[in-house]
Amino acid sequence: MKEYFLSLIDEKATLKLGAMLAAASCHNAIVISLFGDLGAGKTTFSRGFIQALGYTGKVKSPTYTLVESYSLFSKTIHHFDLYRVSDPQELEWIGIRDYFNEQTICLIEWPDKGISVLPKADLELHFMYQEKKRDVQLVALSDQGVDSLKHFIDLLQNPKNDVTGILR
Ligand SMILES: Nc1ncnc2c1ncn2[C@@H]1O[C@H](COP(=O)(O)OP(=O)(O)O)[C@@H](O)[C@H]1O
Ligand SMILES: [Mg+2]
Asked: Fewest C-beta in 10 Å: which of 69, 89, 90, 117?
């Protein structure tokens, strides 16, 4: 399975998607690219993801800081928002390559702004407005991405998990 579509009926469903994808992919280093217009749900998803891994504070949008980092147990999550980047060279100046390694999980909003300097993503999420709801397409681009997507779908199909609001 390399592609999967879901509908998210409200903000809670977007948070839940983040939490479930975190559970499905936190055992490895992974790069997840988040596409979608302003307000489509990229930061909401990231908040669900980061809080599910044990962070209890406020997850701020990194719009002005470019990146917010969270050290949790043995993992570090880097949450990027590249919206304000006008030249990918700016990312070289902050040493962006050092953020990606075997210990890190990277969530990247507006990855197209850094295309020439970012490593390849394992997973892409494309958020789309659907009237008041959101649709999301998940695309796996590496073996690691395929593995995470498979685990995620297993969690989604497990009747023990409450997936109210996430529609297939
Ligand atoms: N599935 C959803 N359905 C309706 N509204 C949503 C959904 N997911 C998130 N939202 C709302 O949409 C907005 C998304 O904002 P945000 O996550 O900051 O978007 P982005 O980071 O993509 O610009 C928030 O106001 C949030 O409450
Ligand atoms: Mg955002």
From this structure: 89
Ligand 2: centre distance to CA 74 (Å): 26
- Residue-number span of the structural domain to which 112 is assigned: 3-167
pTM assigned to the model: 0.98
Query: For the chain, what is the HEC assignment?
Result: CCEEEEEECCHHHHHHHHHHHHHHHCCCCEEEEEECCCCCCHHHHHHHHHHHCCCCCCCCCCCCCCEEEEEECCEEEEEEECCCCCCCHHHHHCCHHHHCCCCEEEEEECHHHHCCCCCCCCEEEEEEEECCEEEEEEEECCHHHHHHHHHHHHHHHCCCCCCCCEEC
Query: What's the number of domains the chain is made of?
Result: 1
Nearest alpha carbon, ligand 1 atom 25: 39
Q: Ligand 1: which residue has its CA nearest to atom 8?
A: 11
Q: Is 40 in the pocket of ligand 1 (CB under 6 A)?
A: yes
**CATH code of 47's domain:** 3.40.50.300
